[in-house]
Amino acid sequence: MNILDILSPKAVKAPLEATDKQAAIYELVELLAEADLIDDAEKLKAVVWDREEQRSTGIGEGLAIPHGKCDCSPNLAMAIGRPREPIEFGSVDKKPVRLVVLLASPPDKTAEHIQALGKISRLMANREFREATYAAEDSTELYELFRKAER
Predict the structure, then answer these.
(1) Which listed residue, of 19, 41, 46, 97, carries a Cα 20 to 30 Å from 128's Cα?
(2) Domain-by-domain residue ranges, the chain?
(3) Residue 78: partners with Cβ closer than 8 Å, 6 or more residues away
(4) Does residue 68 register a pLDDT over 80?
């Protein structure tokens, strides 16, 4: 699994306009729609938000990985956003989120979905990489960090 296979530079935004969890999720879904990576933004928003209401995807250390399975795309798609200010996400460690990585998957791509979640988690487990993403000045710098990590 290579992140660059599912991440377009058009689906990376730093800083996000959003100041709360739901707005951040919706803003990232809109990035996927604008990049033509999904064909039904409203459906994906509903799926991801429903999943988020069941249990927070704030996994700790300033990272949230909201995700959902939806038939709004034949392929996995990822959007990444760095909030201007950390966002309360109901994270397991009670710390606000400094990076949001949204993953959308078709219902029949469960294995790939799990692989992508694992890949993001492994990348972000590296403290140096994680801190660099939190400090990224703009979308280009944020994308480049992921691009270099995948080489």
Answers:
(1) 19
(2) 3-149
(3) 3, 6, 7, 11, 101, 102, 103, 104, 116
(4) yes
Tokens 């996927």 belong to 32
Q: How far apart are the first and last CA of the chain?
A: 12
pLDDT tens readout for residues 29-61:
999 999 999 999 999 999 999 999 999 999 999
Q: What is the pLDDT of residues 77-111, one digit of tens each?
A: 999 999 999 999 999 999 999 999 999 999 999 89
The CATH superfamily of 3-149 is Mannitol-specific EII; Chain A (3.40.930.10)
Number of other residues whose CB lies within 10 A of the CB of residue 23: 14
How many Å apart are CA 40 and CA 20, to the nearest integer? 22
The Cα–Cα gap between 13 and 138 comes to 7
